[in-house]
TrEMBL record:
InterPro entries to which the protein is assigned, alphabetical: prtT
Keyword terms: DNA-binding, Nucleus, Transcription, Transcription regulation
Name of the protein in its database record: Uncharacterized protein
Main location: nucleus
GO molecular function, one term: DNA-binding transcription factor activity, RNA polymerase II-specific
One annotated Gene Ontology cellular component of this protein: nucleus
Localization of this protein: Nucleus
Species of origin: Pyrenophora teres f. teres (strain 0-1) (Barley net blotch fungus)
Length: 353
């Protein structure tokens, strides 16, 4: 509840992280992530079959909800992942079978989308830690794309149009395509014998797909009412803006023109637009309640911080110098120190990277 309604409260990003940790602990304490009938562990106590029906409904919903929310928070902030468990698959199957309400179908769809995002995030993290694995990280994109395509084609039209399903799809797509941002500063093996070089020609294609996904996410968010935004949209929208910024300062990639990113998505303009939307939402709330809302604070801070997201010119880059470190993704330059949003308003959680 706290995670899902976090847009109405002025909490720091650490709030979402700690709340996700608490939710995962509760899932474990309630044994929702354990087999229903564990093979004789005295410390777990006797299994109460009287609670089986409750566990099969509310327990399944709780497990999948926590998994999906934690996946989105982990994607945005880089927190520890909650892995997909056999119990998650069982929960999906049981909710689909019982079909008690339409919300269960939506929840299962969101959870399965989150699973694909988590798989991509696992590849990204392993590649960031293991240079030899990172040489082949791009190879994971096509299988993940296929898995996402097959999942989406299984959705009904109504499910595909659900706003949280749409936001979850954006999250999965960005998680997949941003694997193309991974690149070694120096090849570990000669280029002619490097299997990764076979996929180099497709890297620009993936980067463009990532950019188009970010644009679609921004357009979708800006076309809606901020009062109806879901926590998933609240998290992926600023993440997409940051990804666009990365693409706009991505250098030394054969075939990639960074100006394509700035021409496709103007991050400063997006923040100014969302500030206007927040102002309008605050005006409506004030008309109803007589008081300003958290959206008013958001609008002020968004306007104040928007200039920090302006892509530096060549002259500015020469003045600042190269701030990138010689590591994986070293071709992503730029000064991210100013892109740190305040901690005291609605969007501070997802935007305070």
């Amino acid at each position: 509840m706290c995670i899902g309604w976090s847009k109405y409260f002025a909490h720091r990003k650490q709030f979402l992280g700690s709340t996700c940790g608490l939710a995962r602990t509760l899932i474990s304490d309630l044994r929702l992530d354990k087999p229903k009938d564990p093979s004789g562990c005295p410390s777990l106590g006797p299994y109460d079959k009287g609670t089986e029906e409750v566990r099969a409904t509310e327990g399944n919903r709780a497990l999948l909800t926590v998994f999906a929310l934690c996946a989105n928070v982990s994607k945005t902030f880089g927190y520890d992942l909650m892995l997909w468990l056999p119990q998650c698959e069982e929960a999906c199957d049981q909710l689909n079978k019982s079909n008690e309400c339409e919300g269960d179908t939506v929840l299962v769809s969101i959870a399965r989308l989150a699973r694909i995002a988590v798989r991509a995030m696992e590849v990204y993290r392993r590649a960031s830690e293991d240079s030899s694995f990172a040489q082949h990280a791009t190879m994971a994109i096509e299988p993940l794309k296929l898995a996402l395509h097959n999942l989406r084609t299984s959705f009904s039209h109504e499910i595909q149009q659900h706003r949280t399903v749409i936001a979850s799809t954006f999250t999965a797509e960005v998680a997949i395509y941003e694997l193309a941002l991974l690149q070694s500063p120096t090849p570990l093996v000669p280029p002619l014998s490097n299997p990764h070089s076979l996929f180099a020609s497709r890297r620009v294609e993936y980067l463009l797909a990532c950019l188009q996904t970010c644009k679609a996410c921004c357009d979708y968010t800006l076309a809606g009412d901020v009062r109806d935004i879901s926590v998933t949209s609240m998290l992926i929208f600023p993440y997409c803006l940051k990804t666009v910024y990365k693409l706009a300062v991505l250098k030394d990639v054969s075939g990639w023109d960074p100006t394509i990113a700035t021409a496709t998505v103007d991050t400063v303009r997006c923040l100014e637009q969302i500030a206007v939307i927040a102002e309008n939402a605050n005006a409506k709330y004030k008309e109803e309640t007589g008081e300003d809302s958290v959206f008013g604070e958001a609008a002020v801070m968004l306007r104040a911080t928007a200039p920090n997201w302006r892509v530096p010119t060549v002259e500015q880059e020469q003045t600042v110098g190269d701030v990138s470190a010689p590591a994986w993704n070293c071709d992503i330059g730029g000064d991210f120190s100013l892109m740190d949003f305040a901690n005291d308003f609605w969007l501070s959680g997802p935007m305070n990277f």
